[in-house]
Write a structure and sequence with these properties.
Helix content: 10-25%
Radius of gyration: 59 Å
Largest sheet: 5 strands, antiparallel
Oligomer: single chain
CATH architecture of one domain: Sandwich
CATH topology of one domain: Immunoglobulin-like
CATH superfamily of one domain: Immunoglobulins
Number of strands: 38
Structural class: mainly beta
CATH class of one domain: Mainly Beta
Strand content: 35-45%
Distance between the termini: 166 Å
Shape: elongated
Length: about 625
Amino acid sequence: MNCTWHRGRHPLIATNYTLYLMKQQQAHSKTKYPVLEEQMVSVKRSALIKSMLYLVWVEAENQLGKAVSENLTVNIDKIVMLDTPVITSFTVGENDVEVMWNIPNADQQHNGITCQVRYRKYGIAEWINLNEDAIGNQYCGLEELEAFTEYECEVRCISRTGDGLWSDWSHPLIFRSHEDAPNGTLDAWWYFQPTNSSERQELVVLWKTLKPEEARGQITNYKIQWKQGTLLDTKYLNKCCSVVLPWDTIFVNITAITAKGSTKPALLSTQLSGHLPFKMLTVVYYDGRYLKVSWPAYDNDNIRQLLVEWQKAVAEVAVPPKWTRIPPSSNSILLEDSFEKFVPYRISVYALFENGSCESLINDLVYAKQGVPSVAPSILTLIQVGSVVQIVWTEIPLELQHGFITNYNVYLCSVAPKAKVQTFKYGVRNVTMNIDPGEYEICISASTAEGEGNVSAAVRFKVHVPETDHIVLVVIISVVVILLFIFIIILLLKCRKNIHDWCLKHLPVWCCQQVPAPRCDHVQFPETLFLTSEDGCLNEEPAIVSIEEIEETPQPETMVSQNSDMFEEDYRSIQDSGSSLLFSDSENSGISTRQMSAECAPPAPFSSGYEKHFMPVDI
C-alpha cells in the first residue's frame, strides 16, 4: 500500500516526517514509518489484513515544534490496485496486429479482471481507446492500421470485484504495422564535384530516404537508370542514398523497390537552363538555426515546383548540398539547419518542370550573420616613381572575410599620428597616390557592414626629393638617341649612290675602288679556242709524239699587228653580242690572200682585261 501526502508550505529547515498506521479501535497495533524529506511511504502487503479498517496519519517535527495531520480511515478492500500488466508479445498479420500480455500475481489477487487498451501513431499525442468488445483478459487485436507505420500500445487492468483502482499503464509496446505497395516518389537531386585524377567533374546523384508512410514497406534496393548521349544504362544499389555517375550523363531515373512493389521513378535532368542573377536574396536569421530566405516572385504556369538548395561556400571537406521543395507560387522559405555565424552559404533556387527539366533562377552568396574580417589584406606590391606611389594588395580569403566586404581603408602613417587618406569600395585592390617627399608607413584594413577589421602590418618606404626625376630624363634621352640613330641609318641607305659619287671625286681612287672577286667574273671565250669533249669538259692536252723543226717565212710586223688587232676587235664584238665565233667561205669571200694567211696563223694570246688592271705586269 502506497501512502502519499502534501506537506504544505515548505518549512525551510530540516523536518522529519513519520507515517502512523493503526488498526481501528486497536491502539496497541500502531506502527510508525519514519521518513526524511520525502512525501511517500510504501507498506508491504504482508503487513495488511484483508477486510480490515485502518487509521493513517502523518506527524512532522523539527526544531520549531511538531504538527499532526488528520486521521484517514482506509478500507483495504476498496483500495486494491492490480500489478502493472506486462506486454509479452505481438504478431503482425496482413491487416491487423495481435497484442498479448499478462498480470503478475493476478490469480492470487482476483479471479475477474477487466483491461483497457489504447494505441496511437508513434510520436502523436492523441491516444485511441480500443473497443472493450475487442479486448480479452490477456490479448487484443488492433485493426485498420496504416501500412508500415510505427505505433505504440499500452494496457492497464482493474479488478471486477470491490471498489479497486486501475493499475498503472504498462510499458508501451512499439511496433510497425504490415507492409503494402509504396505510394511515394523519391526526393532526388544532383550536383557536380571535382575529382583529383581528372580535370573533369563527376556527377553525384543524391536522394532522401522515403518516409515510412510513403515507402509502406522495407526498401530492398534502388534502381538507377541514366543516359549518356544515346546510351541507356541501369544499375541496382542496396544502400542509400547517393551514386556517382559519368560527368556527361543527360538524365537519371531513380526507383525504390520493396517486397510489395516499387515507387514511381524520380526524373532528373542535368541540363540546366536559365540565368544566374546574383544579389537577389533577402536573408533574416532567427534563433541560431533558422534562416528565412526571400526572392522576387517568378511567374511561370508550367513550373511544377521550386527547389531551394543550400550548402557552405567554403569547407575543408566537401559536404553535399541540402535541398527542399516548395510550391511554385512561393517566394520565401524558412530553412532549418545548423547555420553558423560568419560562414558564407551558397543558396540557389531552381524551377522544376513536369518533364524533369530544371531552370536555374537564383544563385547567391549569403551570411546568416556577418562579422568583421578576422585578418587584414596583405600588401602585394608597392611601386614608386618619383612622388607617385602605387599600392596593390591581396584579397582576403572568403572563409576569413566573415561578411561582405564593403570597402578597403588605406592609411598613410608619417611622423604625425595615423591618418586616413582615402576609402575605396570593394573590388578596388590598388590605389595610386601623389605624396610629398618624406618617409612613410602605409597599412590597409577591410570593412563589412558590421565594422572595420584588423589593420595590416605597416610597410615603410621613402619618397625622395625631385632629384630622382633624372631617371625620367635619362629614359627620354635614351629614346631620342635611339630614334636619331635609326633616322641616320635610313638616310644613309637612301643617299648611298650620291655619297659614293662624292667620295670618288674627293677621295683617292683606292678608297672607293671595288675589286671584284675572281669567282664572280664570268668571261665568255670563243668556242674555237678550246677543245671540249661531248660532256662539255675541257679535253686534256694531247701528248707530244714527235718534234719537227719547220722554217717559217717571216711576216711583216705590221701585218701581224693588224691581224692581231682585228682578231681582238672581232672577239670583242662576238663577246658583246653573246654569240659564238663562226667562219664560212661566203662571209670571208672578200678577204685578201694576205689576210687569209694571217687568219690561218696562230691567234695572239687572249686577254680579258682583268689582268690588265689588277694583275702585275712586266714594264
